[in-house]
Amino acid sequence: MTKSRVAAVDVGNDAVKANFGKLENALYIPNVIARDMEDRPVIGIEELDEKDPIDNIHIRVHSPALKENNAVYRVGNLATKTSNSTELDPGSSKSEEDQTLIMLFASIALDAVGYGRKESNDNKKVIEANYTLGTGLPLREVKEGKDVGYRSQLLGSVHQVEFLVTPRYQGLKVNIKFDEVKVYPEGFAAFVNLVMDNDLNIINKELIDKQILIQDIGGLSTDIAVIRNRNVDDDKAQGFNLGVAESLEAIRDEILTKHGVELDSRRDVVDIITRKNNRHHIMVKGSRTNVHDITDRILLELAKKQYRYLRNVWQRNSQTEICYFVGGGSAVLKDYLKTLNNNLDGFNIEFFEDENESVWMMANAYYKLISDFIRKNTKETKDEKKATASAK
pTM for this one? Predict the structure, then answer.
């Protein structure tokens, strides 16, 4: 697998969402890791290969970009089952965390041993995987210039993922090399996704020349991008160190204190809040129990803070026509924010009724942006070759 393959990866605070190739492969992996031993015990090891690799990611990661190099991890769903699992902490910078890189490398390695390996008919134990990557960072980190260091960490080095006790892929190693890395500000990416389809055609033309806000509520942070003249206004864009993670942890803690039920991760809390059936209910000693009093109180308090952010930014940008709420946090807070807005200012705000669309918005945007970059780069290369040929 030496031909450069497209990867569009959103390392969200809740989960990694990634698109590969020509959209023939997509991965969703909870952003949870846990340090582990190399030879983890497995009940029914003979049936290991019958299990889903996504639910059993067990890897060693070697990369000069990591502070803790050559360590072994459980990743995603497998990590949530341990007592030492870690999720990104509030206040942390995505660009400076080993966990961000581990999740990025893990998702790409899974694509390489799956679709990428099939394409090249490569049955070697060591897979050479070249990727052209589109990814992003919060506006706050881009404004601080952290995207430059993040990009340089990825380029120019080989990053190796070795699959240990993982179904079907045990013993395989993937050497990841990036031919190009583009790091986009998340707010601008959301705008691109609103106005461009997967074939890079302009849709929603009425939005192109409007002044709009995009409030992206993530796990650890909130970005409000001010879009005017088809670009993010860097001076007006705001980043806040508040997402839904702290509130989800507070809900977890209170459920444990009040009902004696320990939920594995924030992902479980999100499921309780957003699922279609039996929303805001948990099982306590086999009985379905309503936890609406806990979730409502904590999430309403967070929604009030998010609404204050919106009000303050809108006041400074009075000619704004609409605000779009995106990100996983928006899906969690949607009902609370709508109620607050109806009772207070009545701003022109919009949510995506398809929560899946909101959650996948960044990964889809990165795919469009990196595809557009490749298309333009390919055209420039062809034009240069033509010019060189005609000059001879």
Answer: 0.86
